[in-house]
Design a protein that fits this description.
Length: 76
């Protein structure tokens, strides 16, 4: 099994990107993330699909009011 490539994207980056997508696209941002995950998985791009899943989770949390834009990030 190949190790995941190192990422330079931080949790803060993911949150910022999620809020940018929510600001620009509203609830449609969730659909865009779902589409990206689906397409990447079909292409066998598992690591990239996983990154979009993390972004999708942040988008969903933002839309549902579970996170605030400037809130501290907690990794579980």
């Amino acid at each position: 099994m190949t190790a995941a490539p190192a990422s330079r994207i931080t949790p803060d980056d993911i949150r910022h990107i999620a809020w940018t997508l929510v600001d620009r696209h509203g609830a449609r941002a969730l659909g865009y993330a779902d589409l990206a995950v689906e397409e990447l998985e079909e292409q066998g791009e598992r690591f990239r699909a996983d990154a979009w899943k993390a972004l999708r989770s942040e988008i969903a949390d933002a839309l549902d009011g579970r996170i605030e834009r400037g809130a501290a990030i907690r990794l579980n």
